[in-house]
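INTERNAL AUDIT FORM
Audit reference: QA-55
Scope: verify that the stored structure record matches its stored sequence.
Auditor: D.O.
Record contents follow.
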Amino acid sequence: MGKTKPNTGVTFANPDIAIDASSINTPGDYNAEIVAPDGTPVFLSFYAPWPMLKSQGIETRDLANAESSFVQVAPITNNFNGGGCSLKQAKQFFIDTIFGQTGKYGMYGSPTDIKVQKLDDPTTGAGKSDLYLVTFTTLTPGMRESDRKAFISTKVVGDGVFMLVTGTNIVRFRGQESLLRRVADSFECLEAPKSSLRR
């Protein structure tokens, strides 16, 4: 019996047109309309140089290397509600979501040596996000340890925390850092007009 798929919390406003089919094999700018846990419609967009995978969520990956990006959505908590939280609170929130048992990096065992750093973001304006840099050790499907480094862009809309996670293994990170930062900085998340929802 195979491992269940991770729960990224992504719910599309209209599953029939979740992602433009033409973008599946054409890397570039991606956008989608999804909903926050409380039903608030949200328009998100980001740039990634890797093709979109045909999965239940929103995920792009370099099929020849370790670089990837994916969107994670989780309800805000009393300890994490955006930019006002402490680094300790942010770390715990990521441990509970991205690194949790049902998260992308916790599916094969809890990641270890998790370190979180809040980065200064010179960009401003509606839709922009808070940015973190994380390092951690996770287990691969083959149960081998993999040291990784990733950027996490976070944005609160409605009662949801929307996260774009983009990273690679430690060995490749230095050479790919500027590209990964470009992906992370491109993440925008805005409340969409409620009239655009299709039921």
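Auditor finding: record pair retrieved intact. The chain has two helices and nine strands.
Action required: none
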